[in-house]
Amino acid sequence: MANLYATLSLCFPKDRSEVFATTQDGSILTYADLERRSAQYAHLLARLGVRPDDRVAVQASKSLEMLMLYLGCLRAGAIFLPLNTAYTPAELTYFLEDAAPSLFVCRPEDETEMRQLAGVAQLETLDADGRGTLAAESVSQEDSFPTIDRSGDDIAAILYTSGTTGRSKGAMLSHDNLATNCLTLRDYWRFTSNDTLLHALPIFHTHGLFVATNITLAAGAKMIFLPGFDIDQVIAALPRSTVMMGVPTFYIRLLKEPAFTQELVSHMRLFISGSAPLSADIHRVFHQHTGHMILERYGMTETNMNASNPYEGERRAGTVGFPLPGVSIRIADPDSGKQLPQEEVGVIEIQGPNVFKGYWNMPEKTAAEFRDGYFISGDLGLIDNDGYVSIVGRAKDLIIAGGYNIYPAEVEAALDELAEIRESAVVGVAHPDMGEGVVGVVVPVNPEFADESAIIGQLQDKLARFKQPRRIFFVDELPKNGMGKVQKTILREKYSDTFK
Ligand code: MCA
Ligand code: AMP
């Protein structure tokens, strides 16, 4: 295949005056607008000296302009590198030094601070209303652009994911990785140009950018583009939508809302959930309450989507369905790599056109995460006798809160740097809203010290808010096994009621 944008544009409605997106303030972007605006961004990038394969890093609030910048990057052959808006300057420094983007786009209010960061070659701004220096400069550019030819293996985007050890890794996703996956999902989930997707996810991660947006484009469909998950806005938009995608927290919150009734969603075609486990309980309650069975699917930044419950046929709660067409999933013994039979639990390994091209500048780390051409997910699961894949746990030490990944190793490193702390352990425990909540268990240098807010306060500049422990517990010592390794199972058990 070719440039992802070229592939998507073949799927746009013939009549380009069709609506692509409507926003909260009532503005409308048609497919013709999309072609013009993305062309203007592509021209501007070229004028700013951004060449094919250069990285364009973006930490901006969710806006249609940011989506147009994404499409402009694709058209110009540049590599789009979106960054979570919650990341602190300390966290950004690493990403910018590592990826060495030729352009960094930030929020106008952050401009002064961002200029100080190392690794920023060129800075432009973009705000939530689509204003800022970049948007302003783009409007005077020519509004048609010959999309640059790319080979399917060329990199379209880099998304950073943290790891259980060491630094974050930039997952390189090719034009083919993204194109094949969204075309497969469009067909698997029966998207057509009659669909209107309710888009309330952030657009700096796979879910909101590649799954939600690319599928809409690949179907020539429409979206209602909300700034984020605001329950009132979502309730107001549901009557005009046909499909909704979300993390489990979206569905947990909707079920608590009295205005979320069966009548409100009786016309809906599909609810999709992913990024974190949706409990069988929520599946059941949602079904009883609305008559809709949520379709749960499984993905990763490195692989896009791997498995999905069927559109027709049984959507089985507690499973993530079948490997997608063209994707091969096997279960292996975590240590030996030996393939395990159906019904046995092991590490989930994935092969297919969806699997990424490796970690940016990290060939050894990339090699270490593949076995016989299969990507080792770090998720523990099984394939049952009917072929349904279930995720039953994680071989990697990872917490998922509200669909965001938090690596305890990173939080522990930040805690251990504090003068008051001798050592720490970070675990995830059940949280009624976010699925999991972060708990820090620390051994203070001074046994008398027990100031929780002083500890959390010192993390403000170091870690994004969503990674910070919501509670800190002070102990004399951490439970360890004979090898000196912290026994996190004991801690998870001990603090299991923290958020109940
Ligand atoms: C916000 N906060 C969080 C989270 N989000 N803390 C932990 N985890 C979170 N996910 C913090 C806020 O900073 C705030 O801190 C406090 O929690 C309460 O904020 P609230 O207003 O309730 O939160 P919100 O703004 O409503 O956001 C919750 C959210 C949001 C809507 C669930 O986190 C969200 O949109 N999540 C989606 C993430 C996502 O798209 N994941 C996909 C990754 P304070 O105490 O200071 O007030 S892609 C992926 O995983 C793979 C590939 C896949 O399969 O899709
Ligand atoms: P990320 O690093 O943000 O790409 O997150 C990927 C991880 O999210 C996977 O390795 C899983 O642990 C988790 N995940 C995604 N979808 C699901 C799901 N439906 N059920 C359980 N875990 C999921």
Small-molecule binders: methylmalonyl-coenzyme A, adenosine monophosphate
Strand content: 25-35%
Amino- and carboxy-terminal Cα gap: 50 Å
- The CATH architecture of the largest domain is 3-Layer(aba) Sandwich
Task: Give average pLDDT, whole number.
Answer: 96
The CATH first-level class of the largest domain comes to: Alpha Beta
The overall number of domains is 3
**Tally of contiguous helical segments:** 15
- Residues in helices, as a percent range: 25-40%
Radius of gyration: 23 Å
Number of strands: 25
Features:
500 residues; alpha/beta; Rossmann fold; GMP Synthetase, Chain A, domain 3; 3 domains; nine-stranded mixed β-sheet; five-stranded antiparallel β-sheet; 15 helices; binds methylmalonyl-coenzyme A; binds adenosine monophosphate
